[in-house]
Design brief:
By secondary structure, the protein is α/β, with parallel strands linked by helices. The protein has helices at about 10-20, 60-70, 85-90, 95-115, 120-125, 155-175, 200-205, 225-240, 255-270, 300-305, 315-325, 330-335, 335-350; strands at about 1-5, 25-30, 50-55, 75-80, 125-130, 180-185, 190, 210-215, 220-225, 225, 245-250, 255, 280-285. The chain binds nicotinamide-adenine-dinucleotide and thymidine-5'-diphosphate (TYD).
């Protein structure tokens, strides 16, 4: 079996669902259930004996040690994190606590467990750390995309905290020999993403007839990857990735934010006609320190592991919009008081 952390969040939940469908191998799922963690994301496997959910913090070494001793997973996959750049600007503390200190505590628990394993199990064991392309900083319009050898230059409290966790993972490989693999992935989108990130926020606002808040001039570029393609990349890295290596994962789909929003409006106009969604686009104050461009060179994972994305932005976006239209109850259940107060903090003060 495997131990997944953060498996009630967007990518962790999609990974858990895809993993059980693809492999059937049991999963223990450790998640703190912060504002972005949601057991509703795991509804399709409720009652499935192959999945055990445990509410807890990756920074609680005793809880992790107990889970490792009890379940003896062959791998630990760390998805758990604070993940939203804008929230990290308003309040970086939680990012340092979970992403830096939490990952450190998790690594310590895993190292103690791994060191005591018998030889065969120790060799086969993997610690897979899920990270982001944002650790590399920002690109100019003509710069080559980020490769695995691009120097880290994080610009936000979020990316600085993720870069720090990546460095600790690297150090545990180098110093203690822990069999780690790290993935640095571009922006994901797809079902079950919390509606604070660009794509689901725009879908939620458009359906409610609210303004679609584009930061600055909307010309910032991100490289978009459909979440199931990311999940497949993680499975490939877990099974065939070389210990100590990092793998960049991206969608070969660089898009300007404004183009993403307009494409989204076009899909909505087809799927749910009757409103001029594009007229809701509103330019708002830019994000402080806003990274201008991210782009991923994913040739290493393609060459070494044979992974490449299967969805284009158009096919992935159509699936994503369909999912949100079909899951209105999921969306309204997470538009809680905490969500409303985030939206007013972020958009009523910056508009
Ligand atoms: P998310 O915010 O949707 O989910 C994070 C999950 O982690 C939540 O379920 C939350 O409850 C849990 N969590 C937070 N702190 C915890 C703690 N201390 N202990 C245990 N659980 C905790 O985020 P996501 O988009 O699913 O991102 C998952 C991982 O993928 C993160 O490490 C993120 O940095 C990375 N990543 C995300 C993207 C993206 O576009 N979303 C891209 C590249 C990498
Ligand atoms: P986001 O989904 O927060 O991901 P990240 O900042 O990690 O790339 O934002 C994606 C892009 O969209 C980013 O350039 C910021 C921009 N953006 C907006 O223009 N308006 C919004 O309301 C949000 C949430 C993001």
């Amino acid at each position: 079996m495997i131990l997944v952390t953060g498996g009630a969040g967007f990518i962790g939940a999609n990974f858990t669902l895809d993993w059980l469908a693809a492999t059937g191998e049991p999963v223990v799922n450790l998640d703190k259930l912060t504002y972005s963690g949601n057991l509703g994301n795991l509804a399709p496997i409720r009652g499935d004996a192959r999945h055990a959910f445990v509410r807890g913090d990756i920074g609680d070494r005793a809880v992790v040690a107990e889970l490792l001793a009890r379940h003896r997973p062959r791998a630990v996959l760390n998805f758990a994190a604070e993940t939203h750049v804008d929230r990290s600007i308003h309040g970086p503390d939680a990012f340092v606590r979970t992403n830096v200190l939490g990952t450190f505590e998790l690594l310590e628990a895993v190292r103690a467990h791994w060191t005591a394993l018998p030889g065969g199990e120790r060799d086969a064991f993997r610690f897979l750390h899920v990270s982001t392309d944002e650790v590399y900083g920002t690109l100019g319009p003509d710069d080559p995309p980020f490769s695995e050898t691009t120097a880290f230059a994080p610009n936000s409290p979020y990316s600085a905290s993720k870069a720090s966790s990546d460095h600790f993972v690297r150090a545990y490989r180098h110093t203690y020999g822990l069999p780690t693999v790290t993935t640095n992935c571009s922006n994901n989108y797809g079902p079950r993403q919390f509606p604070e990130k660009l794509v689901p926020l725009m879908i939620a606002n458009a359906l409610a007839g609210k303004p679609l808040p584009v930061y600055g001039d909307g010309q910032q570029v991100r490289d978009w990857l459909y979440v199931s393609d990311h999940c497949a990349a993680i499975r490939a890295v877990l099974e065939r990735g070389r210990p100590g290596e990092t793998y960049n994962v991206g969608g070969n789909a660089e898009m300007k934010n404004l183009d993403v929003v307009h494409e989204l409006c076009a899909v909505l106009a087809r799927e749910r006609p009757g409103r001029d969604y594009a007229s809701l686009v509103t330019f708002v104050k830019d994000r402080p320190g806003h990274d201008r461009r991210y782009a991923i060179d994913a040739r290493k994972i393609e060459r070494e592991l044979g992974w490449r994305p299967t969805e284009t932005f158009a096919t992935g976006l159509a699936k994503t919009v369909r999912w949100y239209l079909d899951n209105g109850a999921w969306l309204s259940a997470i538009q809680t008081r905490e969500y409303q107060s985030w939206i007013s903090l972020q958009y009523e003060t910056t508009a």
